[in-house]
Specification:
By secondary structure, this protein is mainly alpha-helical. The protein has one domain (2-93). It is built from 4 helices and no strands. Helix 2 (22-29) crosses helix 3. The radius of gyration is 15 Å and the shape is elongated.
Length: 95
Amino acid sequence: MLRVVIAIAATIELAYFYIELPFPLHKMIDFSGRWFDILSGLCMAVFAPLITLAALALAAMGRRLGLAGILLAVAPAVYWAPLLAFVAAMLIRGF
């Protein structure tokens, strides 16, 4: 049962990540040379979907369901980490 719940949640997360895909791809393709744009694009377009795919693969195999659940919880945090870092930097440093 846990396997099915993890698989459904991972599918929903993947759908969300790929609905939002044009934004991070635009940030990565924009050759402004700012490291933050490249890092946020990688987190949003590459790392978070790969972590979710790993959780989906573990759930499909039925192995290490605890690890699959942890990966499933970490993927949105990786997706939103660049935005949270930007907000923290603006709170500390200001505009």
